[in-house]
Structure formats: structure tokens, C-alpha cells
Predict the 3D structure of the following.
Amino acid sequence: MANYFSNFFHALKSLLIGMKTTLKIFFRKKTTERYPEKRGRLHVSERYRGRLEMIHTPDNHHFCVACGICQMNCPNGTLNVESRMETDAQGRKTRVLTAYRYDLGRCLFCELCVRSCPHHAIRFTNAYENAVFTRAKLLLTLNRPGSSLKPKEESPAAPATPDAPSGDAPRTAEAGKTAASPGANPTER
Ligand code: SF4
Ligand code: SF4
């Protein structure tokens, strides 16, 4: 008999603890968002890595010198930096970006490309509506049509990125060397 009442009160105590938790959560401020009803008004964390983009100025300049460091650091072959050599008015040969290819379908969102770019030419946006019906639509060209390298002096501020995870230090252009350097609208191919 004593065992019966012991079990009864133990079960009752468990039930009340559960109900207390339920009531506490019930009256807490809601954190879930209604989608798609609230599309455009959703709170999306700034740190959310939705997709990569190339930074462009209002006058359609970018900051990419086509060095290929981001491509070299990408662990998944997601990036393809296409360029050509040009000779300027002083007769100097310079590398010019022709196409910056990004395969959103392969991206791991590790951000190693952003952290390794010495010119802060790329960044992640928190755009979250990336669903498409065919994989081909995930192949993006990030440099805008008609854009060109920004002439000297203007450079975007270095984004405040958290420390790189251990063992993920990006490589520089020199093989085998490591560096701790920090770190629009894409058009479809
Ligand atoms: S590392 Fe930066 S500057 Fe170099 S190719 Fe990549 S985006 Fe362009
Ligand atoms: S986030 Fe990672 S996987 Fe995606 S393009 Fe950059 S380096 Fe490659």
C-alpha cells in the first residue's frame, strides 16, 4: 500500500513539473516565424550564410583582382575564377576578371573563400530563398555584367568575422603557406 502511494505521488510530481514547463513555454514570446505569410518581414540573422555575393559599388565596380586565392581555398570546387591578361597604357600586364562562377548547389557555406580574400571582394548575404527546380539555376556568375575592377584608393571595410576554426587557416597564393587574413546581386549563367 505504501508503495502504491509512493508511486502515485512520484507520478503526480512528474506531471506537475511537465505542466509547469508547458505553461512557461506557452506564455513565452513566440520565436517562430510564419512563412510564407510574413515573407519580406522575417527576421533573418545577419550572420546567416545564405549565398555568396560579389561586392559592387553603385558605379558597377568590384574589388576582385582575379588572383584565385578564394578558389584555391575552397574545399569543394565550388568556385571558378575566369580571367584574362591585359596590357594597360603603361605597358604593364594585369590580370582581369572575366567571370566569377559560383555553384550554390555545391557550397558548404564554410566561408573560407571570404576569409581568404585579400581584397574583401566577396561576402555572404543572408538571402534564404534559394530553392529552385533545376540544379542548373544554382550556377551563378557573381560579377555583374559590364562591371570592372575599382580603380585604386577605394576598398570596402573588412567584415568583422569570427576567428577561423582551428585547422582551417586559408592558404595564400604561395603553395603550402598559411595566412590568418580576414575576410549585389548575382546573375545567373
Ligand atoms: S580571393 Fe578575392 S580578389 Fe582573389 S579571386 Fe577571389 S574574390 Fe577575387
Ligand atoms: S563557402 Fe566554402 S564551399 Fe562555399 S564557395 Fe566559399 S570556400 Fe567554397
Summary: Residues 51-188 form a domain with the Alpha-Beta Plaits fold (CATH 3.30.70.3270). Residues 2-26 form the longest helix (25 residues).
